[in-house]
Amino acid sequence: xxxxxxxxxxxxxxxxxxxxxxxxxxxxxxxxxxxxxxxxxxxxxxxxxxxxxxxxxxxxxxxxxxxxxxxxxxxxxxxxxxxxxxxxxxxxxxxxxxxxxxxxxxxxxxxxxxxxxxxxxxxxxxxxxxxxxxxxxxxxxxxxxxxxxxxxxxxxxxxxxxxxxxxxxxxxxxxxxxxxxxxxxxxxxxxxxxxxxxxxxxxxxxxxxxxxxxxxxxxxxxxxxxxxxxxxxxxxxxxxxxxxxxxxxxxxxxxxxxxxxxxxxxxxxxxxxxxxxxxxxxxxxxxxxxxxxxxxxxxxxxxxxxxxxxxxxxxxxxxxxxxxxxxxxxxxxxx
Length: 335
Fold this sequence. Notes:
The protein has helices spanning 3-22, 24-33, 39-52, 60-66, 76-96, 102-118, 126-157, 163-203, 217-233, 236-245, 251-271, 277-289, 300-332. It is mainly α. It has 13 helices and no strands. It has one domain. It is a multi-pass membrane protein. InterPro entries: Phos_transporter (IPR001204). It is found in: Membrane. It comes from Sorangium cellulosum (Polyangium cellulosum).
């Protein structure tokens, strides 16, 4: 590997670290806002399960990400541009306290740099980008439906329980649901960076490509470790938005939202679909908050700001990445 390729791998790991602290809110917002765990304990719990997810999931998402652009048009500068745009967009939305999608920032960034490099949209894999675009709508809807159904079932089954019994029981159960959600988060999100690094290694001739493309173990371990360390650093601006501003949650609601989000992520990862963990948990929280006809319990103004961030993520990160790619090409003189 050349020094330039190694440097880009470092940038990819920086993106993964930022992904971890940007999306830490997805894993810990509900368990912190319900006061089941302290912030420090919550990030440690989430980071642990972010890391060990590598042992539980097949790298289907990583393979799809690596194949998202025609191999002939994948160059180090394209990958550097895509990563740079995604990092910039993540930092901007973190500063604004908006839970945007790191996944879609990466996909948008990869697309923006590749299209500027090759000059046409046909370099993008229509199936993979089509699935990603569709799940902008599908994942929050599925999370919302499962969250609503699960919360409704719990309310019906526990209608004779005392408030104290409900609170104590679901405080314990929320530890399990938070662990399951963090597994889903690590299993889906870390694979996106694994896929980018794998694409880079294939383009550099370090490993073979083809239909049986398999990420190297050291890439898998480094990406999961970087995400876990990022989660340990927290993302408190977004935690406040996710856990406290969308709707008021109790332990039973936190359990239902995390369980719904985990179920959605497990299914998407099994199918190899790179979904947004942010969209998924936001939909689940909204679904839980709307149970019992309490639509007024959802702060729709905050939810609206989040949706606008979702809409702008792919085009904004694509634009930033195109600019970053143009700068890298000007400096290196390479495509």
